[in-house]
Amino acid sequence: MSMNNLGIVKRNIQRADPEAVTQLARFGSATVHEAMGRVGLMQPYMRPIYPGARLCGTAVTVLLHPGDNWMMHVAAEQIRPGDLVVAAVSAPCTDGFFGDLLATSFRAQGAGGLIIDAGVRDVKDLTEMGFPVWSKAISAKGTIKATLGSVNIPVVCAGALVNPGDVVLADDDGVVVVPAAIAQQAADAAQAREDNEAAKREKLASGVLGLDMYNMRGPLEKAGLKYID
Fold first, then answer.
1. What pTM was computed for the model?
2. Which in 39, 102, 136, 178 has the greatest CB count within 10 A?
């Protein structure tokens, strides 16, 4: 992370096509991740603060420093309806950077939720608000407001590169990042994958075994599998 990336706020970002975002929102994170060729997934330690949470939107990115949430307030001003906030930290930290007050502010600006590679708090309030958050930790430990980070620069969040305006999709299975430039392509690939899976699901539900549907018996026999009665 070069130092000249610190203390800047990029105000005009190129967001992914809204139509593609709407299409991607219909799919699960696993489907989109697979459809893109198994890329773009954040680390599995990123979990929703309540079960059943779903989120799909364009990223406003924030680079924070450990124990300091000053830039979250700076980021709030850059949120447009349909955005979500993706927050990375310059070094590992699990402090509670975000709670119900910031959520109220983010929501008023049109944010759908937050993805943060750190801690959050006020979980009960956030759950009651229906404000979805994916985080690395839950922590009551508060933060200060003293160090400049940046808003709307490329960040690495939980192992995934996120550029401002990229599509981020999150659910119970994880968080996946779709680069803005391939959003439509990813949506089309996800639809094709979903159609293919629907046909397989129908067969399996009717009692057809995966052993037969995927023609596994020959290869299993060749690999030396023996049945003993």
1. 0.93
2. 178
CA distances from 93 to 68, 86, 143, 148 (A): 10, 15, 11, 16
Torsion on CA atoms 130, 64, 72, 167, rounded to nearest 10: -60
**Cα 100 from chain centroid?**
20
Amino acid sitting at position 221: E
User: Given its phi and psi angles, is residue 58 left (phi above 0), alpha (psi -120 to 50 degrees) or beta?
Assistant: beta
* In contact, 185 and 48? CB cutoff 8 Å: no
What tokens appear for 209 in the block? 């075994």
161-215 pLDDT tens trace: 999 999 999 999 999 999 999 999 999 999 999 999 999 999 999 999 999 999 9
Any residues with CB less than 8 A from the CB of 211 and at least 6 apart, and which?
Answer: 217, 220
- Rounded CA-CA distance 50/79 in Å is 23
DSSP string for 25-38: TTS-HHHHHHHTTS
Distance CA 117, CA 175 (A): 11
The secondary structure of 147-199, three-state, reads CCCEECCCEEECCEEECCCCEEEEECCEEEEECHHHHHHHHHHHHHHHHHHHH
CA distances, 11 to each of 14, 23, 77, 163, 226 (Å): 10, 26, 9, 14, 64
- Would you tell me how many other CB atoms lie within 10 Å of the CB of residue 83? 24
The whole-angstrom separation of Cα 7 and Cα 147 is 9
Task: Return all residues near 82 (Cβ < 8 A) that are at least 6 apart.
Answer: 15, 18, 21, 57, 58, 110, 112
